Amino acid sequence: MIRACYLHYESDPELHNLKYQYLLGKDLMVAPVYKPYIKKWKVYLLEDDWIHVWSNKTYSKGWHEIDTPIGKPAIIYLKNSKFSDLFKKIRNL
Asked: pTM of the prediction?
């Protein structure tokens, strides 16, 4: 269930440098914040379009700074995921 990103995107050399970011399934990207007092976190997104669970902002491939206030970690899902409706419900919790 928890997977290293390069298992699905093996041709992306940037993924070999990621230590803590991972996929949950193949549609949900998790980038845990492991430093105190951080409100933005730098996240590397894979090819495809991704949606930040908490803000509903769409991101494309590359490095992005994502808002990460306490209680809202960097969780991003694939825009075309068959679980999109489920992920949208998380925002309203």
From this structure: 0.86
